[in-house]
Specification:
The chain has 464 residues and is mainly alpha-helical. It folds into two domains: 302 residues, no CATH class; 108 residues, no CATH class. It contains 20 helices and five strands. Strands 2-1-3-5-4 form a five-stranded mixed beta sheet. Helix 7 runs parallel beside helix 9.
Length: 464
């Protein structure tokens, strides 16, 4: 009896030490998130979400009163933060830091589900955090990948234990991923459904219950969206318009995607059929890589390669001799990007000079302004309202009808100031030259008040 009691006490002490160590590690991850990502980063990609949440805060209706091609989740997440704590940048920043922290914890749990007690398991979540130094985190892509990571974790648990509750959570979180970013979320849901379907067929339909549970609970968040907006409106904003226009406006080289695909191919060859979990993660990785084809830059690729990150320690252990270098090269490739971003961007960063926002606040006293193209964060920063329904109007992306509608709205609302962005990125990458009815009207009816960055940013005013 004494032996059992002593054994139980010893086991509890070991468990308590383990829990304390993990809690300390989670706190360390949070400190990394705060250290590397708490800054004022007035960025166009962050501005999209800030602008949408700001207009929701002012009573405007998403998709009805202003046009967006992103699912509603990100806008409402930040909007609810504004409702509780006020419309401040730090509110959106803290929400995003917590999302990033939660994603790193999800990766850590996935790592330990595949192979426990490996030193790399503690390094990779930190790498996941620092890899986005200098990149936007108040962003729908980050929010979306958080739900995909945790959906993968619960699906992996379900595949390991065959318990229905994990398929409930896996499906529900996968459905939320769609609400935050529809194309990537739908591709993820579809790939998981296909994997479960093939697994069910291999097992002679013994686990049909799990796939049914997954489908039902994945549809719950999507159904909530469908009952709040007309299907025709959602289809045009979230499916049809981005499918027809987004690719053309965001042409990028496929070199980085090819490199990521080569790493994936090696991982798939070496780890195929090692376990059902590794097969699921490899299957998911293939479709996530497909999801970045419209915009295959390193930021979007870095977000979706978490399955390879979680498989790296296992591949390292399974490799022999010189082949161990392959997973290390993959981590090194990701780390080099992080280091480069850290050197160039690890400092408080302002897209515009410090006096820029104050100048607009003082010289543009009216409620409305118009900003374009590709600087939607200015509405939130200046606490002004968009005089049009469009936060982003770019030639080759936006339609002629959208430019004409924006012009009509600007004539009605008569914004006191208009800020136009003629930066090199706008003119070269997005092929925007200012040859449209809206900017032609502005040049004729507004006068230049002030310029920044050698006339790349121009503030127009209708005041004397």
């Amino acid at each position: 009896m004494k032996t059992k009691l002593v054994s139980s006490i010893t086991k509890n002490k070991k468990n308590n030490k383990t829990y304390l160590f993990i809690a300390f590690y989670y706190l360390l991850l949070l400190l990394f998130c705060l250290f590397f990502h708490y800054r004022n980063y007035l960025n166009a990609d962050e501005g999209v979400i800030l602008n949408g949440a700001w207009h929701l805060f002012n009573g405007y209706q998403l998709y009805f009163d202003f046009f967006e091609i992103i699912g509603p989740g990100s806008f409402y997440l930040v909007f609810w933060g504004f409702k509780i704590f006020g419309p401040h940048y730090y509110v959106a920043s803290i929400i995003s830091i917590l999302v990033l922290w939660g994603g790193s914890i999800g990766i850590f749990k996935l790592l330990n589900l595949i192979k426990k007690d490996i030193f790399l398991n503690f390094i990779i979540p930190i790498l996941f955090i620092i890899i986005f130094i200098g990149d936007p985190i108040i962003n729908h892509n980050l929010y979306n990948i958080f739900f995909i990571i945790w959906s993968c974790y619960f699906l992996a648990l379900g595949l390991k234990t065959n318990k229905s509750k994990y398929f409930v959570w896996g499906g529900f979180l996968g459905g939320l991923a769609v609400v935050f970013l529809q194309q990537k979320g739908l591709l993820f849901l579809g790939s998981t459904f296909l994997f479960l379907l093939m697994d069910m067929i291999r097992n002679k339909f013994k686990n049909y219950k799990n796939i049914s549970i997954y489908v039902v609970f994945s549809l719950l968040p999507i159904t909530l969206v469908l009952i709040n907006w007309p299907i025709e409106l959602l289809y045009y904003n979230l499916i049809k318009f981005p499918s027809l226009n987004y690719w053309e406006a965001n042409k990028t080289s496929f070199l980085l995607l090819i490199i990521a695909t080569l790493f994936f191919s090696y991982y798939a060859i070496r780890l195929k059929n090692k376990s059902k979990i590794t097969d699921y993660l490899l299957f998911t990785q293939f479709f996530l890589l497909l999801s970045v084809i419209p915009l295959a830059d390193l930021y979007h690729i870095s977000l979706v390669v978490f399955p390879l990150l979680t498989l790296t320690p296992f591949l390292f252990i399974a490799s022999k001799n010189w082949t161990k270098i392959i997973p290390i090269i993959f981590l090194f490739w990701m780390a080099i990007y992080s280091l480069g971003e850290a050197i160039t961007n690890f400092k408080p960063f302002y897209f515009f000079p410090k006096d820029f926002i104050e100048f607009i606040r003082e010289e543009c006293p009216d409620k409305y302004i118009y900003v374009g193209p590709f600087c939607p964060g200015i509405y939130f920063e200046t606490k002004k309202i968009n005089a049009s329904s469009y936060g982003l109007l770019i030639e080759g992306y936006s339609t002629t009808e959208q430019f004409e509608k924006a012009l009509e709205e600007i004539k009605i609302n008569q914004p006191s100031c208009i800020i136009l962005n003629y930066s090199q990125n706008t003119s070269e990458h997005f092929q925007h030259q200012g040859n449209n009815v809206l900017e032609e009207y502005i040049s004729k009816n507004y006068r230049i008040k002030k310029t920044y960055y050698d006339n790349q940013i121009v503030i127009y005013s209708n005041r004397e």
